[in-house]
């Protein structure tokens, strides 16, 4: 078993699906934090983490591969964090030790330095310089896009907003088709059986269980008319993140006149549906 020492702590070098990963226990140990700190940080921000990118859940069937690292895989599975997931989990740790540990773990664990083969002639050196410049430009663009996305998500959710209102704030999205799209995704369904009456959208249990949508009861009535309650689907924070990801992937129904730019407008509670 290969070991690496970070902050006077020996850690096994754990690899899963072709990349190095860390467990909750490894993070708590190396950062001198109480047991359960890393797990709690992820649980409190789970809607921001993407399985397969930020973390994996190792099934019990793959436990043999982790016993060599002295790590037990429980029946419910073992959560392991990628470099990106680790950096997201420790965002709240801002003391001097945390900064030092993060630098060491990234540079020595997640990104071990290897001695590059340097070109021996001028054309090779020029090609290497061009490749490095291109890699730097791509990384800078990715970092810029990620920063914009994080900033957008932190200010995007507005309690009580309907999917239609939310869609209207996303540049280029055809908000008139958003409910039909959510019906295709099995987020909502039309409970009105009479085709001559307007639609009465309700939320599927799956969308409620995943905290994507909920329902807001609205009392409808008038003079001489017996009041009744209708329900309006409203966005939850995790649903907002999910739809925003679909928007950035160009999977929402878009207007033919869309200019190709991704941005959103500030929430306006007075804006009609």
> Kindly state the mean pLDDT as a whole number?
83
Structural class: alpha+beta
Biggest pleated-sheet summary: 4 strands, antiparallel
For the termini, the CA-CA separation is 61 Å
What fraction of the residues are assigned to beta strands by DSSP? Answer: 15-25%
> How many alpha or pi helices?
10
| Lateral arrangement of strands in the main beta sheet | 3-4-6-5
Helix content range: 25-40%
Low-confidence stretches: none
Based on CA inertia axes, which overall geometry fits? extended
Describe this structure in words.
A hairpin with a 2-residue loop joins strand 3 and strand 4 (19-23). The protein has two domains: 3-110, no CATH class; 150-273, no CATH class. The model has no long low-confidence stretch (mean pLDDT 83). The protein has helices at 24-30, 37-44, 64-67, 83-89, 96-110, 122-156, 163-168, 178-184, 205-209, 237-248, and strands at 3-6, 9-12, 14-16, 19-23, 55-58, 78-81, 188-190, 201-203, 213-222, 225-235. It contains ten helices and ten strands. The longest helix has 35 residues, at 122-156. The radius of gyration is 25 Å and the shape is extended. It is of the alpha+beta class and 273 residues long. The strands form four sheets. A four-stranded antiparallel beta sheet has the order 3-4-6-5. A two-stranded antiparallel sheet has the order 1-2. A two-stranded antiparallel ribbon has the order 7-8.
């Amino acid at each position: 078993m290969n070991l690496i020492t970070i902050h006077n702590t020996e850690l096994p070098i754990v690899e899963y699906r072709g990349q190095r990963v860390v467990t909750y226990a490894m993070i708590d140990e190396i950062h001198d934090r109480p047991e359960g700190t890393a797990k709690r940080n992820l649980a409190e921000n789970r809607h921001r983490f993407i399985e397969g990118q930020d973390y994996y859940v190792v099934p019990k069937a793959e436990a043999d591969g982790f016993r060599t690292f002295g790590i037990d895989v429980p029946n419910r599975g073992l959560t392991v964090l990628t470099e990106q997931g680790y950096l997201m989990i420790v965002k709240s740790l801002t003391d001097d030790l945390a900064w030092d540990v993060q630098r060491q773990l990234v540079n020595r664990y997640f990104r071990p330095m290897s001695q590059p083969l340097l070109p021996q002639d001028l054309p090779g050196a020029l090609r290497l310089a061009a490749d490095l410049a291109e890699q730097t430009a791509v990384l800078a663009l990715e970092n810029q896009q990620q920063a914009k996305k994080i900033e957008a998500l932190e200010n995007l959710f507005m309690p009580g907003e309907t999917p239609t209102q939310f869609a209207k704030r996303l540049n280029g999205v055809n908000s008139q088709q958003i409910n039909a799209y959510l019906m295709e995704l099995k987020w909502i369904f039309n409970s009105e059986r009479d085709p001559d009456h307007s639609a009465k959208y309700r939320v599927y249990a799956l969308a409620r269980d995943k905290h994507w949508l909920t329902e807001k009861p609205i009392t409808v009535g008038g003079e001489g008319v017996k009041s009744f309650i209708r329900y309006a689907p409203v966005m939850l924070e995790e649903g907002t993140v999910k739809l925003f990801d679909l928007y950035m992937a160009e999977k929402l129904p878009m207007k033919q006149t869309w200019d190709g730019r991704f941005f959103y407008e500030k929430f306006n509670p007075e804006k009609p549906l």
